[in-house]
Amino acid sequence: MDGYTATWAGVATAPVGLLAIVLSPWVGMNVARIDPRKLATVAFVGFGIVLWMRSQFSTLAPFATILLPTILQGAAMAFFFIPLQAIVFSGLRPEQMPSAAGLSNFCRMVAGAMGTSIFTTLWENRRAAPRPSPRR
């Protein structure tokens, strides 16, 4: 996002919540009717498409190139988090719900923290590693 001000960077990335807000009520109403595993699969396919689209970015990426995968990510998020919670809470008695919610959030936070730590460590090591000289 070369040349983007902080405001334009925010405008380009903020719409991640747009489709999530629009689609969440629909997903919530239909999660009991449609298998949550299928909805989560749709989300994973969407995340894969978004990651592929972002792999094509360069530092000179225009606004539309950044905006489209951001909006699609919002849709994938709606199709992921609501079905995930339905799967987590399925088959539980009402008195088990608070413990399940706490454990689910704890696992999500720990996994996110570990993933972020591992990724940033690998990224930093890759950036700092000396390039091997080509052999002749």
Account of the 3D structure:
- There is one protein chain.
- The chain is mostly helical and 136 residues long.
- It folds into two domains: 1-90; 93-129.
- Helix content is 75%, strand content 0%.
- It contains five helices and no strands.
- The chain is extended and about 65 Å long.
Short description:
This protein is mainly alpha-helical.
The stretches of 5 or more residues where confidence is low (pLDDT under 50) are none
Question: Main beta sheet, described?
Answer: none
Distance between the first and last residues' Cα: 38 Å
Number of strands: 0
Average pLDDT metric: 88
Helix percent band: over 70%
Secondary structure category: mainly alpha
* Helix/strand order: HHHHH
User: Could you tell me the strand content as a percent range?
Assistant: under 5%
Number of domains: 2
Global shape? extended
Q: Quaternary status of these chains?
A: single chain
Could you tell me the radius of gyration in angstroms? 19 Å
Alpha plus pi helix count:
5
Strand and helix map with partners:
Blueprint: H1 6-13, H2 16-30, H3 36-55, H4 63-89, H5 97-128
Structural key phrases:
single chain; 136 residues; mainly alpha; 2 domains; 75% helix
